[in-house]
Structures are given as C-alpha cells and as structure tokens.
Design brief:
This protein has 122 residues and is an all-alpha fold. Helices cover 83% and strands 0% of the residues.
Length: 122
C-alpha cells in the first residue's frame, strides 16, 4: 500500500487564492481603519483647540512632554522585544540576518519619526 503526501496548499488552489484575497482585504481594512483613526484624532484636536493655529501652538508648547512620552514608548517596546520576542524569533528564524534586519528597520523607523517630529515641531 503506497501513500502519497500532499502539501497543504498544493491540492486546493482555489483555497489559496481565497486566502490571499482575505489577507489583502484584511490589510486594506486595517489601513483604512488607521487612517480613519488618525483623521478623527486630528479633527478632535482641531475641535478642542478651536482652530488649526491654536492646535499648532499647543503642540509647540507640548514638544518636550511629547518627546518624553515617545521615549517611554520606545523603551517599553525595546524592553518587551529583548525580554519576550527576540529569543523566540532567533530560534525560529532561518537565519540571524532576518532578525537583525527587523531590528535595523525599527531603529530607522524610530529615527525617522523623531526627525519628522523635530522638523515639524511636535
């Protein structure tokens, strides 16, 4: 008696296509949600401040506290990365280079956020 091994996605191409569309739709819905949330936060800020100039002035005054807030978030993310995630990822990743690239990308993202915040006064 011979048994043939069938890979998960090999036998059913229509399920693979449906899964791909579901993943793309989820990504698009997530991005639309993030953009809506950002728009609502901006509209709420303008509403509470009264006008756009007052909101800009308030953000200029809150520059240092917002910097400390972002630094606190960065420290929390880095602590969780080293405490919980990194060791597991290094065990599961095919090579260490994958994990190092993720770390470099996150450092570049944080630097980009800080540069734009400094440049445009937040």
């Amino acid at each position: 008696m011979a048994t043939a091994r069938v890979l998960k996605d090999q036998g059913q191409p229509e399920k693979r296509g449906a899964r791909r569309w579901r993943r793309a739709a989820g990504f698009i819905a997530g991005m639309v949600g993030v953009l809506l949330l950002a728009g609502c936060a901006t509209a709420l800020g303008v509403y509470l401040a009264g006008n756009e100039t007052a909101l800009t002035d308030w953000l200029e005054q809150a520059r240092v506290p917002l910097l400390f807030w972002r630094l606190t978030l960065y420290v929390t993310v880095v602590a969780m990365w080293f405490h919980r995630v990194r060791a597991t990822l290094l065990r599961q990743a095919p090579s260490r280079g994958v994990v190092y690239r993720i770390e470099v990308m996150m450092v570049c993202l944080a630097l980009l956020i800080e540069f734009t915040s400094y440049r445009w006064g937040m």
